[in-house]
Write a structure and sequence with these properties.
By secondary structure, this protein is mainly alpha-helical. The protein has helices at 10-19, 27-37, 39-46, 76-113, 128-131, 140-158, 160-168, 176-182, 188-194, 197-206, 212-230, 274-287, 294-302, 320-324; strands at residues 50-52, 66-70, 134-135, 138-139.
């Protein structure tokens, strides 16, 4: 199929939106909005205001579920409000994720350093069986060592504490507490996976998890959430690629038991929506010995979603339940109070 879409100036795009039924009361504000976020990105927030295709016209293979035309009552103000809410929510999530990242670095560094200052570079201090598993043409341990060396090489250019060690102790590996400061957040789950079971369990318990395996899965979820927020991608109406399926006794206490199973919300793909990701983050921060009040900040921002527009079937078009997997009365749960 030939691609026929052509470039249009922003004023032309606004006219096209109006022709398709999207009401625009303030053209100057709408033009500024498109200039700031871009027409294509704004489509992620306009999408939900478009009319649904009748079942016989849906093409699931091409992901075509909606018409180009907008439902009655949809306005550019709705779109702008939704984008603003989502951007602020991403910043709130980033705040919690950065806090968690710092705590995770400290937990892993302390646990491994208790065994040896260079435990991260020794199979004897890690899980030998997992270290020997293949990772492409290398073993997981060899791939990890190369990751560490690259982090140190890069860190020596920007961080004096790395350069100091490399110059003063050229034959000695950089200590674990320094390496964890220059590793990207996305690399920390790989180190966690290589840790011996008792060490991994010690770290997991610092964040309220009884077992390393589900905590290791959660670490990768948090990396996905952090990347989504940091890159300015949409949280609203998103299904993340990694589902979280908790079992009884995976976590300590009762604060996360309401998300066991998938019937805590009617939203499709409930275990891949923002709520379960944010709930897990709030749980881990509160379970940590230093505690946290991030859950209150998140609750305050989420409560600000208020778009009074009904779908053609009479149901509220946008809600926390239908769009992001929140349970009914979520903010009355112990996790958020």
């Amino acid at each position: 199929m030939e691609y026929t879409k052509t470039f249009k100036e922003r004023t032309e795009l606004l006219t096209q939106l109006e022709d398709r039924g999207l009401s625009i009361s303030d053209h100057a504000a709408a033009l500024n909005f498109l200039t700031r976020v871009g027409y294509f990105r704004s489509g992620a927030y306009r999408y939900v205001f478009r009319e649904l295709l009748p079942p016989e016209q849906v093409d699931a293979r091409l992901r075509q579920y909606r018409r180009d035309d907008y439902i009655a009552g949809a306005t550019m103000d709705h779109v702008m409000t939704l984008e603003s809410f989502d951007a602020k929510l991403a910043r709130v999530c980033l705040e919690g994720l950065l806090d968690f990242e710092v705590r995770l670095r400290a937990a892993i560094a302390h646990t491994l350093a208790a065994k040896h200052v260079s435990a991260h570079m020794s199979v004897d201090s890690l899980d030998a069986q997992i270290c020997g598993q293949p990772a492409g043409s290398l073993t997981k341990f060899d791939a990890w060592v190369e990751t560490c060396r690259e982090a140190v090489r890069s860190g020596a250019e920007d961080e004096d504490f790395i350069r100091h060690h490399v110059l003063k102790y050229p034959q000695q590996p950089v200590p674990i507490w320094a390496v964890t400061e220059v590793l990207s957040f996305g690399k920390l789950p790989f180190l966690f996976d290589l840790m011996q079971a008792q060490d991994a369990r010690e770290v997991a318990r610092m964040f309220g998890f009884a077992h390393p395996r589900p905590f290791g899965a959660v670490l990768r979820m948090m990396v996905d959430l952090r990347n989504t927020c940091a890159h300015g991608s949409r949280l609203f109406n998103r299904a993340f690629k990694r589902p979280l399926s908790l079992k009884p006794h995976d976590t300590e206490g009762e604060r996360l038991t309401h998300v066991i199973g998938s019937d805590f919300t009617p939203t499709p793909k409930a275990q891949q929506r923002l709520y379960i990701y944010a709930a897990t983050l709030a749980f881990m921060l509160r379970a940590h010995t230093d505690g946290s009040k991030w859950h209150l900040t998140f609750r305050t921002q989420v409560r600000k979603l208020d778009l009074d527009l009904d779908a053609p079937d009479g149901e509220r078009l946008i809600s926390l339940v239908t769009s992001m997997g929140f349970p009914q009365d979520w903010d009355e749960l112990d996790l958020w109070t």
